[in-house]
Amino acid sequence: MRAIGRQALKCAVIAFAALAAVGARAEQSCPDLNRAYVERYVPDFHIDPAPHFFDIDLDTHDNFRCDGRDRNHLLARAIGDLDSWRPFEDEQTDFYDMLKLILSLGENAIRYTSSLDKDGAGTRTEAQVFFDENDPSRSAVFLTDNFFSNGKRLRPTYSLVHEARHTIKHKLLPDGRALPDEPGHVVCTRGLHAGRGRKVCDAVLDFEAQMAFGSGNSYEFMFLVFVRDHPQVPQPIKDEAQQHLSYLATHMFNEIVPGTLEHYGVELIPKADW
């Protein structure tokens, strides 16, 4: 199994710059996580406190509870994962710096709303990207109560990577060059969602150089391979990453390029276990 390289993201003009490998840190204590959240994560990830997202006073550093239920704690811990799990080999992606840069483009923001109806049919979603009708270069990742209540340790972290990818439309780099728009999801033709008319799949699961041109599922897949192979990630989180890689490959791509699953050490879920 081989970790995802930064060269793949270069192909999609998403990695933006050479990033040095940084040693991973142990999980932060509650006071350190509170401090990092207010002083770095909120400004770095453009988290918008306006709709009472925090329920804490940012000016007085009123601490959130590290109890696994507080919205602030769950979001801070997800960003803290990206902060702690830095590249462990040359030519790897620094996902913290990548998302920090992505969310700085076009006045992006992370915002909170209690719920969202994804398709007008009562389907409640965990997170969704919306673009400003008057200025489509402006976008926001809206996180809902479902995002914070799913109960899976790693899910908020890889969901941020996924949703950040969806903001790459109508975006310019700081030097004025246009970024290629991400392709978006397509209607699923295989897996659990086939025949339901739902646009939640990526077109193809390919090797990394082509996967970098994919949509949110492709970036989620790349991140999960990185997490699974990271020497500083706890084994239960590695196991969750491996399980979700199998879910993505089984249900969230319409086509799989031959040899891809073997290359990344991922097995499809038997249909009897769907």
Explained architecture:
There is one protein chain. The protein is of the alpha/beta class. It has one domain. 36% of the residues lie in helices and 10% in strands. It is built from 10 helices and 6 strands; from the N terminus they run H-H-H-H-E-E-E-H-H-E-E-H-H-H-E-H. The strands form 2 sheets. The chain has a 3-stranded mixed β-sheet with strand order 1-3-2. Strand 2 and strand 3 form a beta hairpin. Helix 2 crosses helix 3 and helix 6 runs antiparallel to helix 8. The longest helix is centred in the last third of the chain and has 17 residues. The chain is globular. About 7% of the residues have low confidence.
Itemize the secondary structure elements and their pairings.
Elements: H1 6-11, H2 30-44, H3 71-84, H4 95-102, E1 109-112, E2 127-131, E3 139-143, H5 145-149, H6 155-166, E4 186-187, E5 199-205, H7 208-211, H8 216-229, H9 235-251, E6 253-256, H10 260-264
Parallel strand pairs: 1-3, 5-6
Antiparallel strand pairs: 2-3, 4-5
